Amino acid sequence: MSKIVVITTSLRAKSNSDLLAERLIAGAKDAGHTVELISLKGKEIKYCIGCLACQKTQRCIQKDDAIAIADQVLNADALVFVTPIYYYEMCGQMKTLLDRLNPLYSADYQFRKVYMLSTAAEDEAFVPEKAVSGLQGWVDCFEKAELTDSLFCGGLTAGGEAADAAEKLEAAYEFGQRLL
Asked: For the whole prediction, is pTM greater than 0.90?
């Protein structure tokens, strides 16, 4: 049994990302994994100030919710980042969190596999490429980890629309079952 941390980054009420993440989590749990969900809704996450103090201490000097999130990520076997795609890229709060996870770079992190689930209004195959590339850039800094797979669920515009998208919900569930 593996510990998977799922981080949903949409701040939208009734977000399609969150609905699909719920199905992914159900699939992962049904596959026998322990899953911990972290939502960035209501979290205070300041911007990284580039001081690099964390490289000596494995702790950020800023006091906000990113510290507790980094602690949860540190001890996970796998990570799943869930993001809406805005302007062909991951959402800003996800990028801010990735920057703030810098203390993990020099730490003895446990995660080895990283995944992405993304949503967007557009449905063309190229839509998530830059978001996936951005996460790949972060993963590349962690030599023991790999970006293992990603799932894109496009064609979802209105909040909560994914609730009626049976094919996308099933794809998210199956993606969750295949983690690790």
From this structure: yes
